[in-house]
Amino acid sequence: MRAALQVLARERGPVAALQLAGAAHPELRPSAVVQPDRGLRLGLKAPDWDGSQTFEEVHLLATPNREETLAYLALARRTGRPVYLCCENRLGADGWRKRLKPLDSVSLQHCRLLRLDPQLLPEQGDPLELRRVEDFLSCPGLFSWDRFDPGSRLLLEFIAGELPGRGADLGCGPGLLARALLPRGCAQLDLVDVDQRAVRAALLNCNQDVRCRGLWLDLTQEAPPGNYDWVTLNPPFHGQGQEQRALGVALLTRASSALRRGGTLWMVANEHLPYHEVLDELRLQAIEVRQQRGYKLWRCRKNA
Ligand SMILES: C[S@@+](CC[C@H](N)C(=O)[O-])C[C@H]1O[C@@H](n2cnc3c(N)ncnc32)[C@H](O)[C@@H]1O
Fold first, then answer.
1. Distance between the two ends of the chain, CA-based, in angstroms?
2. 16 C-alpha to center of ligand 1: Å?
């Protein structure tokens, strides 16, 4: 469990609060939440904030993206209630302390908990709002939110030909790969991501094409419909080492189960990640593998 959440629980639980960008903790009792990450949202036993719930204060966990945290702070300002921002030191807690001029600040468990006057918080921003970047919609906090990820770009070149039948882009992000794949003869394309904003952006970036379906799923806990002719996957990587590999393997396992027999997996990942070690046990047979600019690209067939 994240240290910042433990600090909030220890210092502010169980005050009735609006919880922003947070997760479930037995000591916290949020009256409403804003959490677009489905994995974290599933554990929260509180309604989405619709502006009508009452609460004494706002709890906010700083996210790794500064612009995203600023947008959450702007949202918090609109409540007019005292705001408690908890930030891990590794995410720049001291910078936030200097910038936000808190009424109070405590340092605990490699985190800083700041008590903030809502009137001194930024006025502009909404973490759920999509904004235009060049010719697509996205928002801070999404993976590679303001540019086409170089790994996905390589995957697009690697796929080269047509992609007929039913497909899915697992971990679609803002949908730039999906948008480029659609004209390749797809009959149906499922856009799947753990982040609600990514699913919405991907659908819009694919011009709400009738062949597209957005699915807000945590693929470590939930399965897409399956029986796909093909799946594209650029597995998420966060943190280092085991954690990074485990999340990627969980999505790869999901991709394999979602493919029909004989279906094709198209995957790109950083070349040092040892996904080749699990292909056999997932009944995926590598047909073509390419190494390029620090990435590894695979075309695999799903065997019986
Ligand atoms: C490396 S990014 C690739 C994004 C996108 N395909 C692109 O090229 O920009 C991995 C994506 O997986 C999503 N993701 C991470 N964990 C997930 C999970 N448990 N279930 C579903 N999607 C997840 C992330 O939100 C992110 O959009």
1. 38
2. 32
